[in-house]
Amino acid sequence: MEALLRAWRLAERLHLETLSAVAAECGADDAVLFEITRDLLELVDDATASFSDAHHEVERTRAGHDRIQRAEFTRAVLAGTISATELTLGIQRYGLRADADYRAFRARADAAPPTEFDRLLRPQGADYAFRTVIDGDYAGFTDRTIHIPGAALLAFGPPRPLAEAPRSFRLAGRALATAAALGHTGTCEFDSLGLLPGVAADPELGAELVRRYLAPLGSSGSAATLIDTVTAYLDTGMRIEATAQRLIVHPNTVRYRIGRFEELTGCDLRRAHTGAQVWWAIQYDRLVRPGATNFASAN
């Protein structure tokens, strides 16, 4: 574009020089020469402006086409509908690495307007992310975890090669559903949620474990105290002293509460599989109860 504009200016200069020389030879009046020169300059300006506008329109069209192609490539990678040859060509075209791992991500479309969401994906103006829309959600992949501020929630799957991106994307979806149920905001990684996605994904099992281990406690304030104590007990590796320090109570109080829980439920928390079931029941109960707290304290 710059070279073409220089050529326009050079041609304009040559025309003016030729016009001045011819006018001098013919003895043309200065007023006539001025009028012709002004018309020529206006013609050149109009032509330059028209060409510049057309050039920018072509660039915008090309950029829009490139964005569409990039989004389609991203969608095919995440959906697993891309062939090995197409994946190789896409990796080469977009400067990706065939031997690198990438994290798929997913976010609700109402998390932010498209332009604002794109800005959040480009910290300091760097463009690390490939983004598209799948089932109404923002979706994509990137070679790093991007931490976003505010109330938006962005969930990442585990790092995988691009050929395994569909698995990472599925797990990003589970992380998003779990984190949203927990009321999380910002960036969430599947790896950080532990077993919680499993708790959220199996309500039938969760409800049965709640019936088995929590229903016998009733719904009074003392029941909530027992549950909080058992949660801290499991989270500290079933250490009485550590549990007492966390709850700021006497160790004998912890012993009494644990004993009371085991008496009401008929279970032995020292058995590993029993402790796991009780933990699952507590996490599911706090997931489904509005206003529940400390959901992930023992994950």
From TrEMBL:
Residues 1-70 form the RsbT co-antagonist protein RsbRD N-terminal domain. InterPro entries: CdaR-like_regulators, PucR_C-HTH_dom, PucR_C-HTH_sf, RsbRD_N_dom. Residues 226-282 form the PucR C-terminal helix-turn-helix domain. This is Uncharacterized protein. It comes from Nocardia nova.
